[in-house]
Structures are given as C-alpha cells and as structure tokens.
C-alpha cells in the first residue's frame, strides 16, 4: 500500500481553495465556511485556515466530508483517492468497511491487537480497543483522520477505502481472493517455491507449472507427481 504522505490533507485543501472546481477565482476561508453552513455543516473559517496551513492536522471524518461536499470533490481525494464524483454519487464513511477488514485479515485479529499496533506505531496517535469496537458496531462513526490513516496502514489498504465504494469493491475482491489462496495453501506453497527456484532444473520448473495448470482444470489433473512417486518405489 502506498502511504499517504505527511501534510497531504493540508496541501489538498489549500490547492482546492486556490483552484476550486467550477470556479474561476480563489475561495476564501470565510466563503468556504459559509458554503459548509449552507449545506448543514459547521466549520469555522479560522479552523479552515489552520487546516490549510497544517497547524491543525487531525480533522474528523465529518469535517472531511463537509469540506469535500462544499468543494465538490470526493472525500477520498483528501486521503489520496479519486477527486471526481460519479453522477448522483453521495459518498460517506463506510462503517461496514472496518468489519470487512477484520473478517478478511490473516489469522485471528482482535481490536486489542489492532489498537496496540497502531498506538505503538507513533505516527497516528493512540487508539483504544473499546473505540475500535464502537467503530465496528457503528456506535461511533466519526473517527479522526489519524485513526483512519492508522487503520488503513494496519490492514494494508488505501485510506480512501473507507470512503469510496468503487475502490472498496475492488479491494474486497482482492482480499477475498487472497483468503482463498491462503486456505488452499497456495500462498505458503508459492513462498516456499520462490526460495527454491534457483535449485530447480528447467524440467522441474516446467513440470510444476503444468501440474498447477492441470489442477485448475476440473477433471483434468491425474496426479502425475503422485504416480511417478509410486512408480519409483
């Protein structure tokens, strides 16, 4: 996963204010605050100024969505995702996304494990296991940016995963495939095989590739390796 660089949020917000979509002139902090209020949000112009300068760097999920809505961009854009909105799209925090990440994680993973890992990292502040449970259950749905980044890095997904349904479908599909490959032992096999490749003859490499290809064809695999082993006894 590509890490979201430090200061990205401030840089994105400042650039959007300087070059707002569908507008020829700059958007002032006061104008942006007014636009957010018109949409039912509540972010003061002084706080917007601090966010643009990077003096404040940990807005809530709701603040990210309010800023994105007023600026006419996808909230995922603030965390390294796509900028453009699809027609009729109304993106929002996907609280079910975190449960999916836990369900598809390798091995048994608990909120305590995740909280300890993120908190010990030091880059994303601290987070408690109880708060992660609240996010999992939908009791809390307004995490701050650093928690979003920390969760994304821990589970090795783009931070935009939590906002972008289209991206999430692709990521979930990739993770589901990986789960199946692990259950089949393919990941372990390939890892071991990669370490042995320099020792294998070209004939063995070709035979291995053919055996794998045949095994993936229903009714085709006849256990060539097993037969040869039995014949040699």
Domain count: 3
Write down the Rg: 24 Å
Order of helices and strands: HHHHHHHHHHHH
- CATH architecture field of the largest domain: Orthogonal Bundle
Q: Count of helices?
A: 12
- Strand-pairing-aware structural class: mainly alpha
The end-to-end distance, rounded to whole angstroms, is 48 Å
Assembly classification: single chain
What is the β-strand count? 0
The portion of residues forming beta strands comes to: under 5%
The CATH homologous superfamily name of the largest domain equals lambda repressor-like DNA-binding domains
Shape: elongated
CATH overall fold name of the largest domain: 434 Repressor (Amino-terminal Domain)
Q: Considering DSSP H and I runs of 4 or more, what fraction of the residues is helical? A: 55-70%
Mean pLDDT, all residues:
85
Uncertain spans = none
CATH class of the largest domain: Mainly Alpha
Tell me about the largest β-sheet.
none
Domain HTH cro/C1-type: 42-78, 127-162
Protein name: HTH cro/C1-type domain-containing protein
InterPro entries: Cro/C1-type_HTH, Lambda_DNA-bd_dom_sf
GO molecular function: DNA binding
